[in-house]
């Protein structure tokens, strides 16, 4: 009997080990019988996410130095993809309300349909007003520390209806995170929602309760809130809604107030991202907060923007990779970017789109899991914006001509968002020449998505290489391609 029991235990153990092994062993990627569908957008052409080629792999024994190559290795996997999207702040929602029903549906499909558009899955929205609001507002009466007057009636007019329609178009699969630009004026030392200022210590708990009220109010409207950032651009004193949090301020507010308050309210599952500002100070902010175990336990990730080149320097892409090396167990999320200084004459400026392509490739290659553009829709003035901070969006609506204007940025973003699925794994993708940039992802359905961007003013012939298989691909000057295989 004892021998029978031992044999049974050994069989169960062996079976369990075999099942675990089969789960961990992924089937190697094969190029056999694969067709590579090539989608292209190029400057000075009509190509916009256009299927320009369907190719097949053949054998390549050894690439030559004279050949330009993109080397993809699907067996080398990195971060898991969360999604790509944009912000539905007040401005986008107010402009959307001016569209005809047909134009509204066109815009919804353009962003949130995977088949008819570019398949956004991420959304950001504002808590209280921001610069892209028509006025300054909060959800409580002035001086109401207990938040007894809290209500989101303001958002029910424009923002909430658009978010709900976006969710419906996306099949209910949108990931929403929320960000405040400023607490109410009475909670700040400058008594003003604009022009910086700091949260007064006596209002730390009240402000933490505010996030809970907002999240619960949205969820009662049927809008699930996935996560939040603590403060938009916490080191910028702006002429619009802003509030300064030093790294120590943000750390202590998170660990002593916001984190415990969310947990106590049953909202401990909400994903908290710290920083939500440019790549320049990313490392210092991450270190200050994440080296404190009591603060770090509440942190899902680190959010960042791309405006560090205000100083005249280049964008600091490498800082994202350095933070990823320092804290590999935390997530990196691009939370905002747009082309500043609106000028209607530059609607179709290709360089604006290339800024997106360059940033997205660098950010993903440095460990970023998700990428969120700023406003999804603005008017012919780059607004509305109550402080005149007018900017570009991927799509503009001209209220005079009733025309939706698609800019190059829309198509550049689409080369990623339309083809990379949630939970895809980034895989190794390396260019042999600096004129070509690349990143690649492996979708759960087994399809590889490789994005290639040609930064040069000449047509380039390159080999897409996987092991000893390759195919020759042509990419036009200043073009971006997505290859799906």
UniProtKB/TrEMBL annotation:
GO terms for biological process: glucosylceramide catabolic process. Residues 423-483 form the Glycosyl hydrolase family 30 beta sandwich domain. Keywords: Glycosidase, Hydrolase, Signal. GO terms for molecular function: glucosylceramidase activity. SUPFAM superfamilies: (Trans)glycosidases. InterPro entries: GH, GH30_C, Glyco_hydro_30, Glyco_hydro_30_TIM-barrel, Glyco_hydro_b. GO terms for cellular component: membrane. Residues 83-420 form the Glycosyl hydrolase family 30 TIM-barrel domain. The keyword Phosphoprotein does not apply. Belongs to the glycosyl hydrolase 30 family. This is Glycoside hydrolase family 30 protein. It comes from Flavobacterium soyangense.
